[in-house]
Amino acid sequence: MHLIASRGCAHQCDFCDNRMTGSTVRRRPVKHVIEEILDLEKRFAAFDLHDFYFWDPSFLAQSPWRDDLLGELAELGRFTWACDGRVDAVSGEMLSEARKAGCHSINFGVETASSRLLLDMRKGITANHVREAFQLCHEEGIRPGALLMIGWPGETHDDVHALKLLLKDIRPTFINVAVATPFPGTRLHERYSEMILPVSAEEYGDYFPERSLFKSLSMDVASVYRELSAYYLQRVNPRGHVSPMGYC
Ligand code: SF4
To answer: How many percent of the chain have pLDDT more than 90?
Structure first.
């Protein structure tokens, strides 16, 4: 069952559509979140519901709210959950508290192995943050997933190769490969507007998700998706999971 316990993200990645949800993090009272979990458990008792996904962009960001919520979940002790996370917000201590509270998986926005592209995305992380966070998750017994992005303007086949090597280093239990998509209102859309194909809203369905909306890319994103997926399943984690091609 999916839950949203807070909204907003203080980071400013250029591709993100967080202008809809804003840069100020607003957190629901812990009591309300726990009440909702208990209510869902009751309503869906026939399905033995005990596992949740928190769709919050800032769920694991350091805050007294996070610590209180993890404490309440640990006390209840019968729920498991997964969430999204930023690699630069991870510490061994936080992962240990999350694990005690029932966390089994965290999906991280890894995007790319290229420091040039990470800078251009204004992602605010480095490949070393990624390595460290994944290592800590493996040590703590939390399954780390990697949310990847392909088709950023200027991405090369060398960047894709570097991403494969990074995957081998960090051994994600899951990968999601998204195509960089210039949504109106994002800085990606503003900055690269001259590279965007003139696609109408009606035609957009023909592109989503297997073709890039950028012209003059040096790669075909559907081929790169297949290449990365095959590499991951054959060389990194044969028991891993690859989600269908998406967008970001
Ligand atoms: S991609 Fe994630 S970290 Fe970056 S702005 Fe969006 S929600 Fe925040």
So the answer is: 87
